[in-house]
Amino acid sequence: MSNVFVLDTNKQALNPVHPGRARRLLSLGQAAVFKRYPFTIILKSAASSPHVWPLRVKLDPGSKTTGLAIVNDASGEVVFAASLIHRGDAIRKRLEKRRAARRSRRQRKSRYRQSRFDNRGTKKKGWIAPSVQSRVCNVITWVKRLVRLCPITAISQELVKFDLQQMDHPEISGVNYQQGTLSGYEVREYLLDKWGRQCAYCGAKDVPLEVEHINPRSKSGDDRVCNLTLACEPCNTRKGTQDIRVFLAHQPELLAKLLAQAKSPLKDAAAVNITRWVLHAQLKAFGLPLECGSGGRTKFNRITRGLEKTHWCDAACVGASTPEVLHIGQVRPLSIAAYGHGRRQMCLMNKSGFPRTNPKQKKFKHGFRTGDLVKAVVPPHFKHAGTHVGRMSAKASGAFTIATAGGTVTDIGKKYCRMLQRADGYGYTQKGEVAFPPVP
Ligand SMILES: [Zn+2]
Predict the structure, then answer these.
(1) 391-to-179, 369, 424, 425, 431 alpha-carbon distances in Å
(2) Residues 394, 400: Cα–Cα separation, whole Å
(3) CA 235 to centroid of ligand 1, rounded, Å
């Protein structure tokens, strides 16, 4: 169990505590549960001039999953860790479905429709695709929540894949390329991007790639980045110390392509990720010191600290501020999946595109709403007797469906349900606890 967040009675964030201490405070009646996910308690007294540790929230933004970690820089303790699963794909699919529905509606032989106001074709400055926007919003939401729950004084974000500064104009000047050093990792990430994450000679993907000298060192080749490429182990061994012109003598087309690609430096734009820069701009607005790291440094930190490759470990290793030793023993990462807040579609359609259901009604049914986390205790002798905990979907009839760790149970009467946490647009999974179905 990870540490538990603590608020005082005025909702001022205090130091997170060990779960044992939180249990004791709860059993003594000195605190109450404030939030289930992430687990937070609220004290019944006000803390006067509390001594708080400065904590740092660290982010490793990804396209499907973003790693989150809260690290105490002084002690090296990872206080909280989570992986945030985005719903970019789900958004894209729904928009495509909407587009298809509209298209078929327009082309259908139907009554005369007045032409619509011409407001299409212009996009505001700074527009980003809805699926990208949702990722940015997910991360900002969680940074906001964490800032409210614990004393955060700094933010670290992985901004770029590799740090060109660390490499000093990679294509022009030589770098001390050495495996296992920070600049070595930056060079590797740079090469992975430049050569498309595949073996330059045979095109193999998803295999371990080695850094390869195009003109071998034994034949006066140097360590400049334009003389480096990536090859899989068999190709690297086969090439050995041969010159590339000898090695690829029977493949002149590939040889010409490789030599051309080696000369052209990677365009900066190719290394820029829109989501991360938009996120960067919005994180600045928090007014906290914002540190930016590179992917090369994250990997270097993670491997030198001996951590496994997970989203939250990567997040904990972002940036130059990473402590020499990271204590992760206590951490049980929380898996957070973005579900959104329902859909805008007013009614479902049949296969010909005609309305199939009544227009949707209000969201709240009998005091509950789809996405609420509930605990239902159904007495014996009833159908579905037992205790069910999970995310519910509200039905007008008052008989709810609950998605529990063990599967979905239907027709649970509203009177047996007790609210654990209001729907907040996210589903949560922690090992050994309630599991949620995958994002729709
Ligand atoms: Zn190969």
Answers:
(1) 48, 10, 11, 11, 16
(2) 6
(3) 4
263 CA to centre of ligand 1 in angstroms: 20
Averaged pLDDT for residues 36-47: 91
Q: Strand, helix or coil at 231?
A: strand
Neighbours of 288 (CB within 10 A): 16
- Ligand 1 centroid–CA 272 distance in Å is 27
The Å distance, Cα 212 to ligand 1 centre, comes to: 11
Output the CA torsion sign for 342, 346, 347, 351.
negative
**Distance (Å) from CA 198 to ligand 1 centroid:** 8
Between the CA of 208 and the centroid of ligand 1 the distance, in Å, is: 10
Residues with CB under 5 A from ligand 1 (ion): 199, 201-202, 204, 232, 235
Mean pLDDT across the chain, nearest whole number? 85
Order the strands of the 31-35 sheet from edge to edge. Answer: 13-17, 4-7, 40-43, 31-35
Q: What is the CATH number of domain 55-83+136-161+273-330?
A: 3.30.420.40
Domain ranges of the chain: 4-43, 55-83+136-161+273-330, 170-265, 343-435
d(CA 200, ligand 1 centre) in Å: 7
| pTM score of the predicted model | 0.83
Domain 170-265 -> CATH class: mainly alpha
Ligand 1 geometric centre to CA of 232 (Å): 4
C-alpha pair distances (Å), 259 with each of 57, 229, 244:
43, 10, 9
Main-chain phi, psi angles of 296, to 5 degrees: -60, -45
pLDDT tens digit sequence for 343-371: 888 888 888 778 888 888 777 778 888 88
Residue 233 C-alpha to ligand 1 middle, in angstroms?
A: 7
Q: What is the pLDDT of residues 190-221, one digit of tens each?
A: 888 888 888 988 888 888 888 888 888 888 77
DSSP 365: B
CA of 204 to the centre of ligand 1 (A): 6
Q: What fold does the segment set 343-435 form as a domain?
A: SH3 type barrels. (2.30.30)
Report how far ligand 1's centroid is from the alpha carbon of 236 (Å). Answer: 7
